[in-house]
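Justification of computing resources. Each target in the renewal requires a structure prediction run like the one illustrated here; the chain below, 658 residues long, is used simply to show the kind of job we budget for.
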Amino acid sequence: MSESSIQAKIALVGNPNAGKTTLFNALTGQNQKVGNYAGATVSRKSGTFFTPHGHQFELIDLPGAYSLQANSPDEKITRDVLVGEQDGEETPDLVLCVLDACHLERHLYLLLQIIDLGYPVVAALNKMDSAEAQGLRIDPTALSEDLGVPFVPICATTGRGLTQLKHALRHPFPTAPGRLWKGPSELEEAIEKSTRVSEEKGVRNPAAHGLMNVAEPGSETEDFIQKTRYAYIHRAIEAGLQRPDDASLELTDRLDAHALHPIKGWFIFSGLMLAVFWSIFRFAEIPMGWVEGAFEWLGGTVSGSIGEGDFQSLLVDGVIAGVGGVLVFLPQIILLFFFISLLESSGYMARAAYLMDGIMNKVGLSGKSFLPLLSGYACAIPGVMATRTIPNAKERLATILILPWTSCTARLPVYVLIIPLIFAGALNQGLALFGIYALGTLTALIAAKILKPRLGKTEAPQFLLELPPYQKPQWNHVLRQVWERAFAFIKKAGTVILGLSIILWFLNTYPKSDSDDPAVQQAHSFNGQIGQALEPVVSPLGWDDRMGTAMMASFAAREVFRSSLAISYATDEEDEEGLRGQLSKSTRNDGSALYTPLVGLSIIVFFIYALQCLPTTVVVRRETGSWKWALGQLVGMTLFAYLAALLVYQVGKLLGYS
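Resulting structure tokens:
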């Protein structure tokens, strides 16, 4: 569809985590374009969609913003687009404001700011299913009457209300309600004069400029405007929102007396985390056996169907061994995502954030840094991008630099491969995994304490957190989140890991040796040559050449460590216990065991601290605007990981451990 057929431009705005991006995807589908705003590293997402009336609109997904005060790079982009100061971006014809129905009172402030700018507005009340599950009763008609804009209840994840929302976006758009308040005559005269000056300068949206220029941060004018807006919010909430009954709130208060207690709260938090990690080992054993058996059957079937040769080896030892070696850990990753989603849906995760806020302040950060760090446990990349909500530039940089020490799920295949070589029993293995995550988190906080003052002295901003009532988990939402994250892992295994597995097979197969001895072929191959070159570097850590090449390969993606070992050990005698059995029986040249508990601990410590994710480095460079910070982080964390693993292994040897 040509640009000329687009009848209007709609800006999609909302607080972070309001569900704005989900709504954008639901409305535009595949009709999306992604780029960057001129002169900024912030992504610009746009797409087109049709309404039931046949109108085609362009939808611009503006970055999440708590207000238009522009306390972060994302908020500045949103403010500049709406005010008309963003280069290369026309002001929108209408604003679609997404509100989280579960936190309506907090989200209405941004809506009132946008109404004040003079735009036609439609408000989408998102997450209505969650609000209803919490006992909230919202009257969209009453809200519309009080604030003068249409309120449409929706659930972007399920598609509920999207048709009604598209009907509300009729064209031509409804008249803008304009400012709902009026100030003293002196203030109104100042706004009018500022608007005239903006008109004379020829700026876009002079009315918005006029208001924003008068309401300078910290001024009496801004204080008056804030109080006036909050008065409107309180009146709207009284008329349009009915809160949960006293029994529900009383139960939440009783539970919070324990969950938020300065001592009991930490015992509850630690107990829940320990139960999660124990469950990862205890309940994943059977489905892991199914996955492993399926890939063994597939490998055997392919071997029997294709004659011996390089093509058979590529499929069996490269593709099946490499991809299967990663997917075998899918049940454990699914369990981790399931429990995290369960804690979020029940309302407990907000309590965990509250507990962490006190610790974050002690290391020079604020509670705003906790949420990006929490995202880092799933994947460092969205965690780094989530730091855009941190208003203080120095705190944002410190959070980015320490974030990769929160163990992402890409490390999990390494941990669950090595931990059983050191510890027996699900309880001990769960304790070990809990300790790994705790060590990474503790080190990140200590690093923040040391690093933050060196980046410049700043005062940590206040952290405002709304604690929702406890509720029964929304199983549809939980299962949908688990599926989306698991599918992302499978997609990565089917693309990145598949490609790297083929490369690793090639490096392990060529050049060919004249000998039929697998050990000789391994040493003669490119992989063997790389390993021999690395062996002097990794041998002080207790590693052999194959561990060294696996470590180097894992810089592209940590999961490849498992694939690389699976491909390297495919030349060894078959073992009914799979790769872990082969590792446990591997020996050094002198006949001593190779994968001892001390060596396993050395590997784990290295993977806790090494960045080993080149895509993360690229994103860090984009978010900081500097290769200096990105490469410095990569090199610094790698050196720290090496020294930590070296210390563990060498001190362990001195103490007589093997």
